[in-house]
Design goal:
By secondary structure, this protein is α+β, with helices and mostly antiparallel strands. The chain has helices spanning 10-22, 38-43, 62-72, 83-117, 123-144, 157-163, 167-171, 182-192, 195-207; strands spanning 2-4, 27-29, 51-54, 57-60. α4 (83-117) packs antiparallel against α5. The structure holds glutathione (GSH). Residues 9, 11, 33-34, 47-50, 61-63, 97 line the site of glutathione (GSH).
């Protein structure tokens, strides 16, 4: 199994953490978004990371990859069987990928990734996201946390999807009043402290220079 993509991408991080949680061995190939890299483009025709290959089978999109792996390895799934719980887990996955990444990504892209990718940063857009877009999104997560996990009483894809974008806020030195989100702070530290994230985050920190 090969995961293609930049490890700083929250979508790549989500798939890698998922594979680690499931004990699925994979090889990671560092490929920047949009790279003109034949193997990667065969998996991800529009150049979005992650791309994925399992033998001759190729796929892109973090959620599609995880749904494929859930179906291929049905023991100990990270998507609940119960209809309502499944719906909630899929919602949080979508929320993480779109609403949370929409807010956090505007900060990370413009303060960090643009430089790495040789793109023009929009620092005002990062400041606006930090001051206006992100706080209600974090407040929503804070309100959703009622136990150790977002859905039911075990880890699900929901937890991986919602915490995966959060390290990038630190890498972008986003100013966040964590005292306003005490449940979220404890939750993210706990989920990101799992073994499935540890090596990924250590590699990020080494890359980011600390
Ligand atoms: N829905 C996709 C989103 C993937 C995505 O947008 N990745 C970003 C990097 S974090 C990317 O490749 N951006 C480059 C582009 O949009 O061209 C997923 O879940 O994998």
């Amino acid at each position: 199994m090969i995961i293609y993509g930049a490890s700083l991408s929250p979508f790549v991080r989500k798939v890698a953490a998922y594979a680690n949680e499931r004990g699925l061995a994979f090889e990671h190939r560092q490929v920047p978004p949009g790279a003109d890299h034949a193997e990667f483009r065969a998996a991800s025709p529009f150049g979005k990371v992650p791309g994925f290959a399992d033998g001759d089978y190729r796929l892109s999109d973090s959620s599609a990859i995880i749904h494929y792996l859930e179906a291929k390895y049905p023991e100990n799934p990270l998507l609940p069987a119960d209809a309502e719980a499944r719906g909630r887990a899929v919602w949080y996955d979508e929320f993480g990928d779109t609403i949370l990444v929409g807010a956090a990504g505007a900060i990370f892209f413009n303060r960090v990734a643009a430089k790495l990718l040789g793109a023009e940063p929009d620092l005002a857009a990062a400041d606006r996201a930090e001051a206006e877009t992100l706080p209600p999104v974090l407040a929503y997560i804070e309100e959703q946390i009622t136990g150790d996990y977002l859905v039911g009483d075990t880890l699900t894809l929901a937890d991986l999807a919602v915490v995966s974008p959060l390290p990038n806020l630190d890498y972008a030195q986003a100013k966040i009043d964590w005292a306003a989100y005490p449940k979220l702070k404890a939750y993210k530290d706990r989920i990101l402290g799992r073994e499935s994230f540890a090596a990924l985050l250590a590699a990020d920190r080494a890359f980011m220079g600390g």
